[in-house]
Automatic annotation (TrEMBL):
<feature type="domain" description="Major facilitator superfamily (MFS) profile">
    <location>
        <begin position="20"/>
        <end position="474"/>
    </location>
</feature>
<feature type="transmembrane region" description="Helical">
    <location>
        <begin position="370"/>
        <end position="392"/>
    </location>
</feature>
<feature type="transmembrane region" description="Helical">
    <location>
        <begin position="276"/>
        <end position="300"/>
    </location>
</feature>
<keyword id="KW-0472">Membrane</keyword>
<feature type="transmembrane region" description="Helical">
    <location>
        <begin position="413"/>
        <end position="430"/>
    </location>
</feature>
<feature type="transmembrane region" description="Helical">
    <location>
        <begin position="86"/>
        <end position="109"/>
    </location>
</feature>
<feature type="transmembrane region" description="Helical">
    <location>
        <begin position="312"/>
        <end position="329"/>
    </location>
</feature>
<keyword id="KW-0046">Antibiotic resistance</keyword>
<keyword id="KW-1003">Cell membrane</keyword>
<dbReference type="Pfam" id="PF07690">
    <property type="entry name" value="MFS_1"/>
</dbReference>
<protein>
    <recommendedName>
        <fullName>Major facilitator superfamily (MFS) profile domain-containing protein</fullName>
    </recommendedName>
</protein>
<feature type="region of interest" description="Disordered">
    <location>
        <begin position="475"/>
        <end position="494"/>
    </location>
</feature>
<feature type="transmembrane region" description="Helical">
    <location>
        <begin position="54"/>
        <end position="74"/>
    </location>
</feature>
<keyword id="KW-1133">Transmembrane helix</keyword>
<feature type="transmembrane region" description="Helical">
    <location>
        <begin position="173"/>
        <end position="195"/>
    </location>
</feature>
<dbReference type="GO" id="GO:0022857">
    <property type="term" value="F:transmembrane transporter activity"/>
</dbReference>
<dbReference type="InterPro" id="IPR004638">
    <property type="entry name" value="EmrB-like"/>
</dbReference>
């Protein structure tokens, strides 16, 4: 793991801060890669382990349910027990679970390993932003650090698709999990040395066991219900019944937080217009971008006939564009024009991305029809770092882990909603067109067009929310701990 400075570094800045950012970014990249790398290898996994079509979805669902369901709890645990400790435990669990997944010889073992990977990912991811915002307290430096962090999330998915195709085709699907071992072990070794030690406020400050059980059960059940919509439908008793129970559990959690002496999630955090508004924008944006990240890949494979490796390479310009903007432009523009202006610009570009996809033809050519879409995806590199900065700037220092967990939770909720809503709409439209006698390629393209159009509408709504809600000055950044060194100029991992 190496690091190169993204800007001039003051001679008194300790290298440990640069390494800390590199460690957190590497951990985030490992988690994001694992999420996307699996999708490319799923047909091979199904054949090798003899998964049923319905059972195969649990390779993804088991991870999503554990990850999304535990993020909020994990963020608060970081505030209470120390974020470094929780990051280390999460990374260790994820790495061990990756080894279990790599040696799995049955569907049950692989699904269990994926659930444990989700647990580890939740623990490590939930506190990452909390560590960053306490390390980098100056607005300009924080923007650069968050840009690096956001890049790993935004571009890592596309990189995972390329890497997944290469590893699966050249070696075997086992290597998509084995690759996590050296990365995880290196991350642990460096994190032990460079991440700032923090004791947390102690369990007495928020050891709300009942609240923890309510929110974890509510989120897990809600995400499970959403990801199964494609199988059961929106109006089925399964969906309505479990959805109602999930909403009831979350409502009881909010009531509990309003009355508990030591709440797991103090509701005052939602009184911050920036925190609440940024999380709402994120749900809408991430739900919409499912149509880009996943449905474009499906279009390339199912309509244009691309293989796994070619699909990943076709998506690579999007990753490069997002990375160039995240690391080289976003922080500078935020410092000059403000995060809100940069966010709105990024959202406007994303409307253009989905608008172009609504018009993509059945027999598209890559250079004139798809490459412009990939390059305009740079808007995500503008929007996500600015949105993250806005959301985290509304939280107090002792709530940074909770705010980080909340922000990651809404990201997972947005992803789950995107999967459920847009894939269901695309499939229904495709079935309608097939019933009218359209060819398979034309019917699939028509289904994707509808999903892209709905995604564009979600981005427009996100733009309206950001424009009207995310106003006003940011909260003063959390104060530096007394025993901490001054923040370093953030760097990118090579």
């Amino acid at each position: 793991m190496s690091a190169t400075a993204s800007g001039p570094t003051s001679p008194h800045v300790p290298p440990s801060h640069r390494l800390a950012l590199g460690v957190i970014a590497t951990g985030m990249l490992m988690v994001v890669l694992d999420g996307s790398i699996v999708t490319v290898a799923m047909p091979t996994i199904q054949s090798d382990l003899r998964f049923s079509p319905a059972g195969l979805s649990w390779v993804v669902n088991a991870y999503l349910i554990a990850f999304g369901g535990l993020l909020l709890l994990a963020g608060r645990i970081g505030d209470l027990l120390g974020r470094k400790r929780v990051f280390l435990v999460g990374t260790a669990v994820f790495t061990a679970a990756s080894l279990l997944a790599a040696v799995a010889t049955s569907p049950a073992v692989l699904i269990a390993a994926r659930f444990l990977q989700g647990v580890g990912s939740a623990l490590a991811s939930a506190v990452s932003l909390g560590i960053l915002v306490t390390l980098f307290t100056e607005p300009a430096e924080r923007s650069k650090a968050i840009a690096v962090f956001s890049f790993t999330g935004a571009a890592g998915a596309s990189i995972g698709q390329v890497l997944g195709g290469l590893l699966t085709d050249a070696l075997s699907w086992h290597w998509i999990f084995l690759i996590n071992l050296p990365i995880g072990l290196a991350t642990l070794a460096v994190a032990l040395r460079v991440l700032p030690a923090d004791r947390g406020s102690g369990l007495a400050a928020g050891a709300d066991v009942i609240g923890a059980l309510l929110v974890t059960a509510g989120l897990m059940l809600g995400i499970y219900t959403i990801v199964k919509v494609a199988e059961y439908g929106w109006t089925a008793g399964h969906t309505l019944g479990l959805g109602t129970v999930s909403i009831l559990l979350l409502a009881l959690f909010l009531i509990r937080q309003a009355t508990a002496r030591t709440p797991l999630m103090p509701l005052r955090i939602l009184r911050s217009r920036r925190v609440a508004g940024a999380n709402l924008v994120q749900v809408l944006m991430v739900a919409a971008l499912f149509s880009f990240q996943i449905l474009v890949a499906l279009y390339l494979r199912n309509v244009l006939g691309y293989g796994a490796t070619k699909t990943g390479l076709a998506m690579l310009p999007a990753a490069l564009a997002i990375g160039a903007v995240s690391l080289g432009v976003s922080a500078r523009l935020s410092a000059r024009f403000g995060e809100r202006a940069v966010l709105l610009t990024g959202l406007a570009l994303l409307v253009g991305v989905l608008g172009l996809l609504v018009r993509v033809p059945v027999h598209a050519r890559y250079l004139p029809d798809l490459l412009p879409v990939m390059l305009l995806a740079a808007g995500f590199g503008l929007a996500l770092p600015a949105l993250t900065s806005l959301g985290m700037s509304g939280a107090k220092e002792d709530e940074a882990g909770l705010a980080s967990g909340l922000f990651n939770t809404t990201q997972q909720i947005g992803m789950a909603l995107g999967v459920a809503v847009l894939s269901t709409l695309a499939a229904a439209r495709t079935d309608t067109l097939l019933a009218r006698g359209k060819g398979r390629a034309e019917a699939l393209t028509g289904g994707y067009h509808l999903a892209f159009a709905v995604g564009a509408g979600l981005i427009v709504t996100a733009f309206a929310v950001a424009f009207t809600v995310l106003r006003g000055p940011a909260r003063k950044p959390p104060a530096m701990p007394r025993n901490a060194n001054p923040p370093a100029t953030p760097v990118t991992t090579a």
